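User: Predict the structure for this protein chain, please.
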Amino acid sequence: MNTDPNQHPYLKTANSVCRRKFLKQAAIASSLIAASQFPMDAFADDEHNKLALTILHTNDVHSRLDPFPMDGGKYQGLGGVVAREKIITKIRQEEKNVLLLDSGDIFQGTPYFNFYKGEPEMKIMSMLGYECATIGNHDFDNGIEGLAKQLVHADFPIVNCNYDFSNTMLEHAIKPFTIVKKEKLKIGIFGIGIELKGLVPDHLFENIQYHDPIENANETAYFLKYKKHCDYIVCLSHLGFEYKDNKVSDKVLAKETENINLILGGHTHTFLDEPLKAKNLKNQEVIVNQVGWAGIKLGRINIYFDNKNGYDYVSNFTAISVKETTT
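Assistant: Here is the predicted structure, written as structure tokens:
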């Protein structure tokens, strides 16, 4: 409960003037309520009007289902789905509205992928309750057909809006965006991918056409905000955080787009100590985050919404270390 006296002027003073003013306002409000012209939650404490959304995210897990071995290496004992599940479960027990997302390169990097071609990765993400993911370049390492076969094990949508999948096996399997509802909130989520040519052999991505990520991101975000009336818009990006040349990155995407609130990135395996706060074309803040690779970190961002004003503010950025000993 908020105990700040400045937020409760009628508890701060007991003089008769304030009492009369309060009674007068209460009488007016009562009449408005009777006429159904006044929202009931207007009486609620401002702090209690905040609706909280907790976003958890990973990127570039690369089939790392087990923790790194205790061999003296840099990441020994880190990662693994068992430890990640414990953290996610604990947060879900503590928070009402939790959204779990991934920014691509789910496949490739351990014998799990070499032997099982992505099936355990998709099944485990489904068991963990992921609600959306995008695809990275390594998710095509078994070709379009190989990816399509594994998508049947995913109980969550895969999104991308700048690849044209027409006349491929993925045409109806991957959508540009999805919308997730948490209480009164509508969260629009769309995906953006890096150019595959030069990263992936041509025969593996076949007829998939790459389109400008900035143009397609702008079109999709506009549609989600003004046509679908989403309260918050998340871009799952596999472009990479930043480059020395003019290649499109998450930093560029944030500055050259509108209507995106949060960009969760992948591809460059960037461990950010804290998210980047950038300004978009309308000089509005965009949050950009990425949490390395291999499931070593689980990103957490808390977002608060005001019943009157919509999206309010973001706080509590954390990159949680995923350890085998996590309880």
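Residues 1-47 have pLDDT under 50 and may be disordered.
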